[in-house]
Structures are given as structure tokens and as C-alpha cells.
Design goal:
Helix content is 22%, strand content 22%. It is an alpha/beta fold.
């Protein structure tokens, strides 16, 4: 049964998504994610953080990996393939996942750079990384009424630098959750989302980033002085 939950500091993501506000939040975010996610019917999807409300049923194989953090430890209902992991080590084979979706994850890691490096390793070379991260300048990062108000929020510059250093190439960067949490019960949320999508509203509640592996970024460039010139074969005189 859904309730209009008045959230306190002790409540976690599981409690939030059982509330009316949590259901509304997931609905708004899923509309944006569905327009950005690739075709997942034959792809392996790994969700990290607290991905349960956002794992699409159309994925060929979807795994939920919740972080060992007070906000994300309790499981989400109706998830069959679910596990609890440490953010410092992803227990999945290299090149094993076509898509990695991170929601309520990056902001709770001990080292965001190490976490992204781990995600890079488990992704296939043509894989997608989708990040949903609290926006430092948005309303949602400054209230503990939702899970997005916990952990460390990020600015656009911080997120861009982290991904570039982690050998990711950003393909799409947008925002979502334009309506402040306190107004969700008064506004439908749909119109602010549409407006924010068009004008790239800087105070969006979350960043949504779609990135690909930059498999060539780690290859060293050849120095001109180190080039080896192969001499032409000189024909011997008759």
C-alpha cells in the first residue's frame, strides 16, 4: 500500500520508493530514461546503487547490485537477480555487461574514480554507461526527504572531469526532476520536465549522463622521434 510518506533521516531508499512521492519520482525519471536507453532486448544490463525502480522489464538479462550503504541495503521488491556489493570492487567478469545503469550509486561510493574504473572494466567495448547523479545546484541535493539528498552531489564540471579521467566519452548529458520534491504533490511534474529538457534548466534535481567506453584513450601516442623509418630496398646493380 502506498502512503504519502513524511520522510525522516532514518528512512532509506526502500521506504522512499514505497511512498507516493517515491512512486512519482520513479515515474518521472523512467520517462526520461526510456528515451535515452538503448534497445535492451538482447543486452545484459547491470544496475548499481539502488536500481530496482529503474530496471526495464525489456532487458534480456537484468541484475540489481545494491551498494552496502545505509540508504541502499534493503532490497527492492520483485527483483529476482539481486545482490549486495561493495563500491570498491564490482564482483563481475571483465567485458561481461552491455549496459551499466547507476542510480543512487556514485554519490555513495568511497572513491568515485575507482568505482567508475570498475564499471569501465565490466563493460563491453561497445557498452553504455548511464548515470543518474544528484545535481549540486539543484533543490533535490539540499533536502534529505529523498535518497538524492544523501551522499555527495556533483556539478556538471566535476562529473565531466570524472568521466574523462575514467576513460569515458560523454554522448548525452541532460537533467531531470525539475520540480522541487516539496511540490511533487501539487504539480504533475510533466510540464516542468518538458520545459527543462528544452532549455537545459541548470537547477535540475539530477544529472542524467549517457557515456561510452573510450577504448583508445589509454593507448600511448607515438613520439615522432621514436618513429622507425624502414629504408627502401635498393636494387643491386646488374
Amino acid at each position: 500500500m502506498l502512503t504519502r510518506l513524511t520522510r525522516t533521516r532514518s528512512e532509506d531508499a526502500a521506504a522512499f520508493y514505497q511512498s507516493w512521492a517515491g512512486q512519482r519520482t520513479a515515474s518521472l525519471l523512467n520517462r526520461r530514461l526510456n528515451s535515452l536507453l538503448p534497445d535492451l532486448r538482447a543486452r545484459r544490463l547491470l544496475g548499481i546503487g539502488y536500481p530496482g525502480p529503474y530496471l526495464p522489464a525489456t532487458a534480456g538479462c537484468a541484475i540489481s547490485a545494491r551498494l552496502q550503504h545505509p540508504q541502499t541495503q534493503r532490497p527492492f521488491h520483485h527483483i529476482v537477480q539481486d545482490c549486495l556489493i561493495d563500491s570498491g570492487r564490482l564482483p563481475f567478469d571483465d567485458l561481461s555487461m552491455d549496459t551499466v545503469l547507476v542510480v543512487h550509486g556514485l554519490e555513495f561510493t568511497r572513491s568515485a574514480a575507482d568505482f567508475l574504473r570498475g564499471a569501465w572494466k565490466v563493460m563491453t567495448d561497445d557498452g553504455y554507461l548511464i548515470l543518474v547523479v544528484p545535481n549540486r545546484s539543484g533543490y533535490w541535493a539540499h533536502t534529505d526527504a529523498t535518497p538524492f539528498g544523501h551522499g555527495v552531489p556533483f556539478s556538471t564540471r566535476q562529473l565531466t572531469r570524472l568521466l574523462e579521467q575514467g576513460l569515458f566519452q560523454i554522448e548525452h548529458h541532460t537533467g531531470a526532476l525539475m520540480t522541487p520534491p516539496a511540490l511533487l504533490s501539487r504539480l504533475s511534474g510533466t510540464l516542468p520536465e518538458r520545459i527543462g529538457k528544452l532549455i537545459r534548466y541548470p537547477c535540475a534535481g539530477v544529472h542524467i549522463v549517457v557515456a561510452r567506453k573510450n577504448v583508445y584513450a589509454g593507448l600511448p601516442l607515438m613520439d615522432e622521434k621514436a618513429r622507425v623509418t624502414v629504408p627502401r630496398q635498393v636494387a643491386e646493380p646488374a
